[in-house]
Amino acid sequence: MAISRGNLARKKMKAALLTLGCKVNQAESSAMMEDLIQAGYQSASALEADLVVLNTCAVTQRAESEALTILRRLKRQNPRALVVATGCLAQLNPHKLLKDNLADLALGQDQKASLVELLKLPKGQFLVTTDFKPSFFYHHKPERTRAFQKIQDGCDARCSYCAVPLARGPSRSQGLEKVIEGLEGYLAMGLKEIVLTGIHLGQWGARLMPPNNLETLLEAVDKKLGSKLKTARIRLSSIEPLEAPLVEKALKRYSWLCPHLHLPIQSGSDKILKAMNRPYDSKQACDIILSLSQQVQGLNLGTDLMVGFPGETKEDFELSYNLVKSLPFGYLHVFPFSPRPQTEAQALKQITPEKLKRAAAAKLRALDQEKRALFLLANQNKPRVALIENTTHRLSGRIKLLTDNYIQALLPIEIKAEPGSLMEVYIGSSLNRWRLAEAYVDHSKNEST
Fold it and tell me: Which of 419, 401, 397, 315 is nearest to 360 (CA)?
């Protein structure tokens, strides 16, 4: 039986919420956990919880497999818990989750905002809708030092490899005033970094009446909240390359906007970009990236790259590799292609052998390490404002931090800092054995803001 409010009244129930995938999922998970706590649940580990919610991802076969593995482990290690699967995998394939007894309930994307009420459903039920109503809630007590504020959901693009439009529905945006209201709420709590997230963030405002865009949103944020953002900052999550020019002016103008963008170019081969249904060619992507790098001081640019797309030849891969090597990226995320159900690419026959995929991915990941080292070198001994995290690095016991331009680093063991505060630090020139940067402070300036 599902957990009822009557049970809650008799016993303090424990809940765990696990998250896979994107920053939008992280934002939604935080909101769901807050709803559970307000309903009387106590946060706990998955092993001791009465209720475990897994917010799944299905963007790749690996992400789907990870979700299935976690669900099987939960059922084995905590058989008494009510296990609820939600997120993209639950939206796309709830029947598999229930048929294989991997979850007791499967809830789609639109059901996340009603999680507490839907726990009353009998075991073995799923509730998935496809009308995709707007759902833009923000949580009141983030567990992390950064808040993730979802302001856009869904996607109207039809990239041939991507199932996200099926899992998330069409693009829809939170109204400007509500975005400002959410930001004000987080700033009032004393949070020092807020990440604006969306499935297709660069399309924020396109379907509002009247239509709007990210450039005018950031102008409104500065006008209404600029004075409050003198001791806090906002970061943007992933932006499509053709939409990056919308934020170039803001990155140059507003000190509160973090100099960091993630631009998923996916490939440097025009043939493969066309087969992917990407709306740009390699020259357009290159021009945008170079303009951003030249115009915005200290900017850290990251990208996504897919290897092994059907029909990709050795020559196509070399075009991607050489393009990325020539561009000022600070880090790379590398993904082998995996066919997703109900996508165009699933039907393509020119399959790249797994051995070649692995070799291509390894070569790009080695390039990722080169890019990270070069970016650190460019930032050596330069002051950066860092957010102090609220958990220590497990292996070293040292304080973790994140700079405005997205360098993850560790403070010396003797330095103490308040979690959630901003501190000026200087970055060393190389990664340590944990693949993190080393940070140090000027003792004459080491007061947290």
Answer: 315
